[in-house]
């Protein structure tokens, strides 16, 4: 009797273990779905750029010298022809005085040469001097006249250099930067040193954005632009495409094109040099039917009955969405069904997350975007794992 009880218990345990093993190795396939919704789809081209004033002027010095005075500083408002710096004029004033003296000397030499030429001419008429002497006197007169012109030109040059001691602003604007201090020596031997940078008007700015060659064909003058800067992460600024330049910019074999975007900066929150993350609006559809892009990448695996479904290799979307007008297959899990139904749909534009549906789906449809399995996972230490997606 005891032996029979032991045999029954052993058979029961073996049967229970076999049933548990069968259940634990039977896949229960479930589908993760997303809803077809009604909303807006905006196709954009993204890029980065730098904010700059529309007109940015760097002011230098044509002459060398020491900075004697500064009349403008950072953020100062200046007017056109206003003196903003003064170089020490002492050496240039002395040069003007020397040039004036040289002009006076040349003037006196010219007067003497003219008197000499007139006297020689009278003597030649009276046959008291040779013609050669008259020719020499006339040549000396012309030479003295040329010398006077040279000295007058030297005086003009000296006066111009003296005038350049006063550095003036060429435009009305605001001082963006100042590169010199009082007492500093400015050396203009080879290149004109930069003293100030002045922007004409910070209420009107522009973004110089680098747009990839694959996206530049979608841009056009007049397109709306949304952008943000790190200084104001929760604020969206707006602009308009003003120019798409044809000159390519190649950096490490990457070709981009400079796109100029006009920006209103009435509150002057935006500052020169800020990095802008822009989105150029190419197309937009308001209150249309849209499907999640994950559902467009899903493919139903063709697996034998009872085998574990394999996860299809996802199709990586392009960095910048492209308009889609082709027919596409999506899988819809209708209410009460255990298997999804393939449906042919026509698609419109995409924003990278959702795609416009032109035909084939209805608001609220559940579209499959992935497969979920309840298959237990056996680890090295034994036991069963939790629910895992394929």
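Sequence proposed for the structure above (390 residues):
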């Amino acid at each position: 009797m005891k032996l029979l009880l032991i045999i029954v218990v052993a058979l029961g345990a073996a049967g229970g273990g076999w049933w548990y093993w069968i259940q634990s190795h039977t896949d229960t396939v479930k589908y993760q779905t997303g809803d077809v919704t009604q909303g807006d789809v905006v196709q954009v081209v993204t890029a980065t750029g730098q904010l700059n004033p529309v007109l940015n002027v760097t002011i230098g010095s044509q002459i060398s010298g020491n900075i004697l005075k500064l009349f403008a500083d950072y953020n100062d408002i200046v007017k056109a022809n206003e003196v903003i710096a003064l170089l020490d004029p002492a050496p240039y004033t002395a040069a003007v005085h020397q040039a004036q003296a040289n002009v006076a000397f040349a003037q006196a030499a010219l007067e003497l040469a003219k008197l000499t030429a007139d006297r020689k001419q009278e003597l030649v008429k009276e046959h008291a001097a040779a013609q050669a002497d008259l020719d020499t006197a006339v040549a000396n007169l012309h030479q003295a006249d040329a010398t006077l012109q040279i000295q007058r030109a030297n005086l003009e040059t000296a006066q111009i250099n003296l005038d350049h001691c006063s550095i003036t602003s060429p435009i009305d604007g605001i001082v963006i930067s100042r590169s010199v201090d009082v007492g500093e020596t400015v050396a203009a031997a080879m290149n004109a040193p930069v003293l100030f940078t002045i922007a004409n008007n910070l209420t009107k700015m522009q973004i110089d954005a680098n747009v990839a060659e694959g996206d530049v064909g979608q841009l056009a003058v007049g397109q709306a632009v949304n952008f943000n800067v790190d200084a104001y992460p929760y604020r969206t600024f707006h602009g308009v495409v003003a120019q798409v330049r044809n000159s390519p910019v190649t950096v490490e074999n990457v070709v981009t094109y400079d796109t100029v975007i006009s920006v209103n900066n009435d509150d002057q929150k935006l500052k020169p040099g800020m990095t802008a993350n822009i989105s150029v609006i190419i197309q937009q559809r308001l209150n249309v039917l849209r499907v999640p892009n994950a559902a467009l990448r899903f493919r139903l695996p063709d697996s034998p009955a009872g085998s574990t479904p394999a996860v299809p290799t996802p199709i990586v979307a392009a960095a910048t969405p492209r308009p889609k007008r082709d027919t596409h297959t999506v899988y819809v899990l209708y209410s009460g069904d255990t298997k999804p139904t393939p449906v042919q749909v026509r698609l419109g534009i995409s924003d990278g997350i959702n795609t416009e549906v032109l035909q084939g789906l209805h608001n609220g449809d559940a579209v499959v975007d992935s497969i979920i399995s309840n298959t237990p996972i056996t680890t090295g230490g034994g036991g069963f794992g939790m629910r895992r997606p394929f």
